[in-house]
Structure formats: C-alpha cells, structure tokens
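tool=predict chain=A
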Amino acid sequence: MKKLESSITNMVLVLVGVALITGSILAYVNHVTEGPIQEQASKTLADGIKSVMGGVELTVAKDDTVKQEFGGKEATFVVHKTVGADKKDLGVAIESTTGGFGGDLKVLVGFDLEGNILGYTILQHAETPGLGAKADTWFQKGSKGDIIGKNPSKDNLTVSKDGGTIDAITASTITSRAFLLAVTQAYQAYSNVPTDGTTSATSQAK
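tool=predict ok
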C-alpha cells in the first residue's frame, strides 16, 4: 500500500475529515440529549411555579409575554397565570431577568391577587460561586433579607444602603440590588398583564 504523502493538501483533507466526523457526532449527541434537557427544564419551571405560589396544587391557566422599557432598555417577562383546584385565580408567577455582578440573574417570583410576594426562586445566575446560593435563601421568609409577604407598591424593596428596608447579602450589595430590581420589575410587569385575553402587552416604566 502506497504511503500517503505528507503535504499541505493531505493534512487539510485529514483535518476536514476529522472535523466532519466530530461535527456529526456532536450533532447526534445534541439531538439525543435535546429532548431530555427540555423535559428537565419544563419540570424545573413547573416545580418552581408551584413553589413560589406557596406550594399549593395549581394549574397554569395562561402564559403572557409582557415587554417593558426601563431606562431606555426593553425587558421581557414571562407571566404564568395560575388557578387552584377550584379553578379560582391564585395569582401569577413571573420570570424576570436583570444583570447581576457576573451576568444575567433570572428570578421567578410569585404574587397573589393583591400583588403581595408569595415566594421566589433563582432560575439562573452567573454570580460568584456561593452568592447565587445565598440569594436563593437570603430573601426567603424568616431570613435577614425577608421579602415574603411584602408588596412592591407599598414597601421600598431596595437595600438599606440605598435607603430601602432590605438587608443586603453580606459583602454582596451588587447581587442584592440586581435581585431586588428583578423582583420590582416583575411586579411592574404583573401590573401590566393584559386582562382582555391577549397574550402580550407592551408598556413603559420611567
């Protein structure tokens, strides 16, 4: 068998062949894992909605997309309207994203029919290791930064350093500000949820 000559052309052909084979393998793996990943993401969201709405049995009756402008930048919120076993409205769970210390901070917040905070959970963060976990517990009921039961229209949900009533996470004021901003903006989105059967709303917040 004749030995393959070492040349630029042959090396390029080999590299292209390897790239094609590797790409095919990656595409196959992505195809195989895409379904389970989406299924897990859906389950995580469903569990999160139940948790932030107080852990009661519920059904998501409708999803709305609400867009608002804050400081000239448009933000998009996903609003999950929920009903109980008796089909009566329970309130909404809202996905809200802001910029944290290390990247996007995505929070799911539950509000009752009066706009009071029922609960929250962190869906995504890129904070310094440990800070994301702290944010997931720091503002829960009974904790130092407790926001449960508060209403953003009545309570000043900013850190005490900024004149608010909420204790910031120790040594992490930026993450605390980002979290509270996500909650406050989620409430403003909640206030603008359409009630006429449409699936989206756009408004401006100054």
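Confidence is low (pLDDT under 50) at residues 196-206. The longest strand covers residues 58-70.
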